[in-house]
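Final report, Chapter 2: Outcomes

The project's central promise was a pipeline that accepts a single protein chain and returns its three-dimensional structure in a standardized token representation, suitable for archiving and comparison. That pipeline is now operational. To close this chapter, we reproduce one record exactly as it appears in the project archive, with the input sequence first and the structure output second.
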Amino acid sequence: MDLELRPLNILIGSNGAGKSNLISFFKMLNEMMPGRLQQHIGISGSAQSLLHFGPKITTQIEGELTFEVENGLDTYIMRLAHAANDILIFTEETLKFLKTGYSSPKVDSLGVGHQETKINQSADNGLETAKTLKYLLDRCRVYHFHDTSSTAGVRQSCYIGDDRWLMPDAANLAAMLLKFRQSDGGFAYHRIIQAIQAIAPFFDDFVLEPNGYNRVILNWREKGSDRIFGPHQFSDGTLRAICLISLLLQPEEDLPKLIIVDEPELGLHPYALNEIAAIFGKVSYSTQVLISTQSSSFVDNFEPEDIIAVNRKEKVSTFERLDSLKLETWLEEYSLGEIWEKNIVGGGPH
């Protein structure tokens, strides 16, 4: 499967079509980069569970990611094969750099047989292509704000120094907001507050006060009241919206290079969802965005070329970007979401 990403990429498709498989690939990268590939495999169930219909049918996972950089193209290639004890090992890990104006790339092989990526070690040893790709791969970040239960990390306190980047479940959101408030004159922080107030008019501001153990919790204040509320007093939908807004409106220099969000519509009021869709559109001018959704009303906020229909044909997932010209007649009478619901563009169960 070859998939070229535009600034904004919205995956639509029926359950089981393959959207989650693509998201899961990037989740695996997020765990692989800090050296937790085997831990990720164990948590996922086993190596067999990551291979399509098991190792007898699918012997290996292959991935190739190409990034356009200032002076050329950087490519990361990996092959993971099933091995004894139900693990995955690298049968290939290769880095390529094709300089602008050249026809042949510089190729560096990181070896075979290892259980964890060697890209970090190669970067530490001074390999320039490894340094660049490590930076880029570290910044392809998957976010999933589904868990807003009473035990969710975002409702607990966190260490104030845990503010390098927002965690996948926003467990360090309070620390990140404290950092935003204290940097750049608080510009990004105030922008986040205004966006939250647009969908939650009762909200006034956060009360971020580290305790004696250098931990901070997501306390907040309501308009017209001096009373302090805790994170457990946010509704699930409001808290998910706050996580999304904070992710997207953080300072531009802190944004991941690729933001991947799975089902941002969960628990959101239609007005809030439309507001957040608009923010996704704006942030795509600064970084790439990849979203998986099941919401036709969310899709209505975008252009056909932003949408990728995912279909499963003969046990294989296909990814096809929509074309405005092909849909011109339909768009005269129907919204993009309605066209999807009618299964005109695929991405449906039939």
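Archive annotation: The first helix runs from residue 19 to 32.
This record, like all others produced under the grant, will remain available to the consortium after the project formally closes.
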